[in-house]
Amino acid sequence: MLVTVGRIGRAHGLKGEVGVDVRTDEPDRRFAEGATVVTDSKVPRTLTVAADDKEFEVTVRIDTPKEQRYYRHGGILQYVLRELLH
């Protein structure tokens, strides 16, 4: 599950400062130094994708409970087949 607490805008000036469009009702808590957002998801945040001699990491984005079920079953096809068999 991806939770948006803010969106970073363009850099301003030479110091690399950025503006943040706040998308949370608790900005002091969410943007405190060292703050993290914890969800009840058992889905890893990153996966390693390998094909032939190429390998790279990707960020997992799951937006709905249905997408989470697909992921846990190994994909949409596996989910649908399991549902048909039960």
Structure, briefly:
Helices cover 26% and strands 29% of the residues. It has helices spanning 27-30, 65-72, 76-85, and strands at 6-12, 17-22, 46-51, 54-59.
What does this structure look like?
With 86 residues, this protein is an alpha+beta fold. Helices cover 26% and strands 29% of the residues. The chain has three helices and four strands. Helix 2 (65-72) packs across helix 3. The protein starts with 5 loop residues before the first strand and ends with a helix.
Topology:
Layout: E1 6-12, E2 17-22, H1 27-30, E3 46-51, E4 54-59, H2 65-72, H3 76-85
Antiparallel strand pairs: 1-2, 3-4
Helix pairs in contact: 2-3
Keywords:
single chain; 86 residues; alpha+beta; two-stranded antiparallel ribbon; two-stranded antiparallel sheet
Shape annotation: elongated
How far is it from the N-terminal to the C-terminal residue, by CA?
27 Å
How many helices in DSSP terms? 3
**Oligomeric assembly:** single chain
Total strands: 4
| Helix-strand makeup class | alpha+beta
Approximately how much helix is present in the residues? 25-40%
Succession of helices and strands: EEHEEHH
Strand content range: 25-35%
Spatial strand arrangement across the major sheet: 1-2
Largest sheet: 2 strands, antiparallel
Task: Provide the low-confidence segments as ranges.
Answer: none
Q: What is the C-alpha radius of gyration, as a whole number of Å?
A: 18 Å
Average pLDDT level: 76
